[in-house]
Specification:
The protein is about 45% helix and about 15% strand. The chain is built from eleven helices and nine strands. Helix 10 runs antiparallel to helix 11.
């Protein structure tokens, strides 16, 4: 069974909805979840997730607030929870302090796309290991085989394969890049490979996971949270539609 990873930005639609969304994702059958930490300049994200970051910050979401919300749901979490965000807010919080809080809040791993691998190895890997946290690197169709193997060796939990070279939610993302997916599948990687960017339906999910271990859905889910009055029902239906 291919794994489904659902992403949402903490602090939307309303500041206090985070815990409910965590439970909803878990209860609807997702295998893991990524929670986005809002940031004022989310350069790797498309318009929908940028809007979510903006809304969450306006609602008053902070890293401190997110940890408090995570602690309130910690005992009910049965699937891995990964925090995704940019390095600046984490460094402002204090990297080790941040990892300690993650460990105390039931977080199992981090994705920080703008943390260079060399910096990771030199300054942060040992801290993550100390707090038993996974760290996931991203690869793209342009990433060479040698580089993929290097990033896989540094990653734990899974390797995030971006479906095409674009921002999140790009309508023109090439989902089924056969050469790329075959190339990844042919490498002897230690981590499972999850494909992300542009997956909007069960058909998309099945297409991209033919040669991968799972798929990551963010923009399509965040869109529901931002724009649907009945987001609670529609979010559950959406996850069911992918999984069933």
């Amino acid at each position: 069974m291919k794994k489904l990873n659902i992403y949402f930005t903490a602090g939307i639609p309303q500041l206090e909805d985070t815990a409910e969304i965590i439970k909803l994702i878990q209860d609807s059958g997702a295998d893991m979840m990524e929670i986005g930490m809002p940031y004022s300049d989310p350069v790797a994200d498309g318009p929908v997730i940028q809007k979510a970051h903006e809304q969450a910050l306006k609602n008053g979401m902070t890293i401190e607030k997110l940890f408090s919300q995570l602690k309130s749901t910690k005992n009910e979490m049965k699937i891995p929870v990964i925090l995704m965000g940019y390095i600046n807010p984490v460094l402002s919080f204090g990297f080790e302090n941040f990892c300690r809080e993650c460990s105390e809040s039931g977080v199992s791993g981090l994705i920080i796309p703008d943390l260079p691998p060399i910096e990771f190895e030199k300054n942060y890997q040992k801290i993550l290991e100390k707090y038993n946290l996974n760290f996931t690197f991203l690869i793209t169709p342009e990433t060479s085989d040698d580089r993929i193997l290097y990033l896989d060796s540094l990653s734990s939990g899974f390797l995030y394969a971006v479906s095409s070279s674009s921002t999140t939610g790009n309508e023109n993302a090439v989902l089924k890049n056969e050469d790329y997916l075959s190339r990844i599948a042919a490498l002897s990687l230690k981590n499972p490979v999850m494909i992300g960017f542009g997956i909007k339906s069960k058909e998309d999910f099945e297409n991209v996971t033919e040669k991968a271990d799972g798929g990551i859905i963010g923009t399509a889910f965040v869109n529901i949270l931002l724009n649907d009055k009945d987001w609670k029902i529609n979010a559950i239906d959406f996850i069911h539609s992918i999984k069933n």
